[in-house]
User: Fold these one by one.
Assistant:
Number 1:
Amino acid sequence: MKFNDALSGFLLLLLALAVLFNISSFPTIPGQNIGPAAFPGLLAWLLLLCSVLLIVRSFRTSVRSPLIELGAWIRSPYHLRNFAITTGCLLFYILASDFLGFLICAFAILCTMFWALQVRSRLIVPIALMVPLLIHTIFYKGLRVPLPWGILLPLQW
Amino acid sequence: MTTAVLLQALGLVLDPYVLLVIFCSALFGLFVGCIPGLTATMATALLVPITFFMPPVPAVAAIVTATAMAIFSGDIPGALLRIPGTPASAAYTDESYRMTLKGQAELALGAGLVFSAIGGLFGTIVMILFSPALAEIALKFSSFEYFWLVVLGLAGAVFIGNASVLKACISLLLGLLIACIGLENPAAHPRFTMGLPQLMSGVELIPMMVGMFAISELLRYITNMDPPAVIAVNKIGNIFSGMWDLLRKYRWPLVRGSALGTIIGIQPGSGADMASWMSYAMSKKFSKEPEKFGTGHVEGIVESGAANNSSLAGAWIPAIVFGIPGDSITAIAIGVLYLKNMNPGPMIFVNNPENIYAIFLVFILANIIMIPLGWLTVKIATKILKVARNILMPTILLFCIVGSFAINNSVWGVVLILFFGLAAFVFEENGFPVAPAILGVVLGTMMEENFVTSMIKSDGDPWVFFTRPIAMWLALATFVILLWPVFTWAVNKLRGQPA
């Protein structure tokens, strides 16, 4: 997904303004002229300058490009779907891992991703079972990372 | 280096556990480098959550070994598939693929392997000779000099070798702003936390790196529409035959490539890929047979193959001595050093000399074992290249999740990898380089601290930044880099005008 440089510049300009607005409420340190707002303030001013330059530069180029140019993959339903599934899997883990636990979430994520990427169907379930168990053994048993058990807590080993 | 410290360092490296870690990470690096789409930086980002649980020496050894191997191994799919395994091999991928088509796959891969190892050793020797001397000088540095050093590094990252200096600047500023998040600033005032307690301690570096280098790579794989590549040969013969002749014929290009690679490595922000492109161009320029370049000629592979590996060691020099990373790999490694209480800086040579010399020894060892292990990898390369990537990639996704969770045992790490993965993906699609942002995040705190300390010391007088002797020279160097584009622009403009 390609944004026109003018649009990117505009978004960055908004960000710089937001930072400047935010730091205006930072306290000053009595007896010192440098407070917590100084450094981010300097950065925000520089960002403001760069974003204006980006906007000006994009208007000066003779070739006009659309505001948002969709990449070829966005127009391919297969690739777009897989992109959505990958980010969806991460979101799913963030939301569900506490409740469902690592093993169930990992199994579900692998099954979905394998299916989406056209892994042979008879391989999907065995590999999706094996890999989480292996990772769980390495991290939970070996490195003592407290991966969540979730609803499998009664079966904890 | 005293004998006692050296023996102590040798003891640390020859520990069976460390040797095992080196061996395993070598295999890991060779595998990752060989698979197109998995980069050396990604190998580092994936290793960090595991090194988190190791003592300092094996932790650093794992990163050093894996990256050295991955940079060599990236040559293999270049020669066999015409796809570079890591960006560092991209400069001479066409060349080596053409050699394969001419029936010289062995020569291309052999040159890649042998000269990678020699280049790596060259960079290591420079590092061993120069870092302690540089550390002696660095001991005299105060906050003023450190401030300029950071600015110099950041300026180099933005102005050297970037297609769009403006976009690199923006990327850097965003990185520096991310470094401002949280409580860890000289005034200890919570900044930009958006009411989230997780942001109080700032954005954690490791999940951010995993997101930017692993998740964004995964997304690029998922959205890649290129048809699958075909392996050009099925059997690879003896890759070592003819190497001695090459070594004699191209000894000067080898030295030149290794030296340039080391220098590019030392320069913050530019790593192995830049070293490889620049030395390939230089090789062509100085070659006696420049017309052969691009037709399957081994000279460029010798020179830039050595350069990309020597840059790895070069990048560690500023990382160890000043705490300023030379490339994105050392940016991650610095994070690991801090976690291990091995804070980089000149004092590390006083406080933990044995650990530093152990790192030097690991570099030597890694470049030596690269030869047999690399040979083995080339032998089974056609099989590795057939590994089902549709099974591998989801498995890597799972590793990323667990790795980022492990840093704080909280799902917040996964939130970070998702956010930064998407951000890096969109950034790169729009031509904003990611490396300056990483340097900004790593160096932001250091820059602010030195700036504020200096300003307080000088009672708000900015002239002190220019009046101390070393600081003045560093400032001058910074301004030369900053004003260089303006200077070249002006010269071109003047030349372009009719007299």
Number 2:
Amino acid sequence: MGLLQVGASILTSLLIGVLTSAAVWTRFAQTARTYLLLAFSILAVYWFQPLIPLRSFDFWLPSLTLALVVLTWFITSSNGARSSSWRSSQNLIALLLIAGLPALIALSRYFLPEPIFTAAAPPRFVIFLSFVIALAIAVTLTVWLSRRFVWILSAVIVFLVVVLVILKTPALALQTSIFLRTLTNRSIETAASTDLRWLGFSYIAFRLIHVLRDKSRSPQVPLSGSERDQQAGRLPGLSLAEFATYVVFFPALAAGPIDRAERFAGDLRKDFVLTRDEALLAGQRIAIGLFKKFVVADTLALIALNDLLATQVRTAGWMWVIVYAYAFQIYFDFSGYTDIAIGIALLAGIKLPENFAAPYLKPNLTQFWNSWHITLTQWIRNYFFNPFNRWLRRFKSIPAWTMILAGQLATMLLIGLWHGVTPNFVLWGLWHGAGLFLHNRWSDFLRTRHPDWQQNQRLQSGLQIGGIVLTFHFVALGWVFFALSEPTRSWQVFLKLFGM
Amino acid sequence: MRKFFLIVLVTILSASALTACASGSDDAPAKAVEDYLNALVAKDADRLSTLSCGEWEDDALIELDSFQAVEARLDGLACEQTGTDGDTALVLCSGNIIATYNDEDQELDLSVRTYQVVQEGGEWLVCGVR
């Protein structure tokens, strides 16, 4: 998001907050807030999508996002209560917004000299209409299948993962771009792995998988009639408007945080009045975020580690400077975006979860990962680390330390791959997995061999300070893998850092 | 429910009828060339790709590369369709591209070229020069 998009998001959220507060005495205020948030989120899906060299894909990728939202909602609510039936007036209005606003955007090519909500002119309306009809058939077919076969939910999860893997793997992304270029009669000479820049898909996919996964879980306890009527899984029944707003909520669209559907829906259902204190709090959060992102991070970016600087810097001292600069740049950039998103959401009465909690001041790597990109690590913990560990425990013969090592390495490897399927992200994941394992063993060693150390305050303070310095440097060195494109470059940086 | 679907159907049919009448603007090829030249001086490779036909895309990007080292802007740009050659629309532009390097301006006359513009999938795309 650029400054213009941030500014427009602030104004939109403030407008929604003020309108909802003014009409809070009516029983429609909260419903209207949901519809307004949904409408602006749909427009943001198109507006935030950057232009890509594949013609009209700046329209089709957002349209596919909405298609996946609609498909997921239909199959997760198809065996639910009558209130979640798509025929209810609430869901019909949402459906009308989800289909109608993109239709208006497609139609805008005929009456606007320049596109407003898309980076380039949208495709012809007749093509859009064909897309909607094809989507309607696909949704109907999938819903019909999902009522007969439970595995359809898992199949959709697999589909989302496959798309994510394609987008994150440079070789697969390149082949997909070549395929699409051939299909649309474009030059394949200029195809690149960066052609398919699908805005926010990593976050959108994780939100959809969370809902699909939780809906597909069998109940652990017998359900009462009303519960059974609601839904077999763990999530409450969400209307289409609530669900779609959750997935494509405009402040969190580009860079998270990854909220949970039931928590988000809870905020939407609450009566909301934007008080002066809340507005000030939100304003303060946005101002801090803007300063972090556009002043601190963007300034640090000038001297932060990258492929070019890695080859230009010759001395160990300057190499440490650019590594430190990168460590702080990535923190201020990402946490700044999160502050902006949380602040904007607050103006509309949505309390998005925190994503950072002073991570560089943590005395060990485990605490660092509990305070860095918190919502991603919680997601991975819920849907990968815990199930994976439960599965490992079935093998009684495996020693405990092996299970811990396997769990930490696999989890961090997955987090690395989420950023991109490249050797450097794999190394970054393994670096942190190994670090977490070592910390686990060290903690265990201290607890069993030196329990008396816990009583010694001076020693504890020393360990605390030493831990912060050590953890920060471990993380900073890990960024050498993250920031650069190839392992050989990272290796050269390591050699320079240590004067070799 | 029926009323709802009736409204949706009527809206879709009206929109389709409207777009059928609205499509095919006379100055669309000239507008495509103007957009192309604007993308060129802005060094916007992604936009330039979307405004070029498949056969011309590589050449368009080579042309863009030639502007990488200079500041470029358009001066007095106006394009007009001058004729057709089969399915190809021929567009002539007036004005200049002003390329600035080291505070020195160089004017590139746009009128010496005729742009070939073709329609692909309903879009007018620059597909070569004469």
Number 3:
Amino acid sequence: MAQGIVNKVGFKVGASDPASIDLSAYVTSFTLTRSADQIETTAMNDTGHRYVTGLENNSITVELINDDAASAVLQTMNTLFKSNAYFKCALNSSVAGSAANPFYSGLILVDSITPINGAVADLGVQSLTFQVSGAITVTSTGTF
Amino acid sequence: MSDIDNDKANAEWLVKIGQSATAPAPKPVTKKDEE
């Protein structure tokens, strides 16, 4: 794939490594934000501000259909609430890992969930943002 | 830090905060405990 629509994102979570509960079928929106702290190193005689990167500071924002079946969204998130959970995600979960489709994994802090959310007749969803604990592991081999 | 090192650091950190599958299993209940 060169350019294309985003419709094959994979998202797994779990209490143990590797994350094994596949929530991909419930994902309606997904954003992985990779960021690093910005450390200023500006010193005398510099004519502009200078920076280097510091620690990673990553996050995941995901919208999930709030399916209440076993191993689906509601029960999984209720179980993982207030813990650091393993995650794995990919742009395309149906093809092998590569430089064009790396797999990202690590730990997320499940500190906020919305088990009940919606107005009358709405589809129940959970719109969640998770802070990544530690750095993210990026692999370009294997399968999702 | 390599990816392998990152995975190891994550596992070790979970042990450090007391949230890990590798933590010691609960002490089995003995007959004496039940009495």
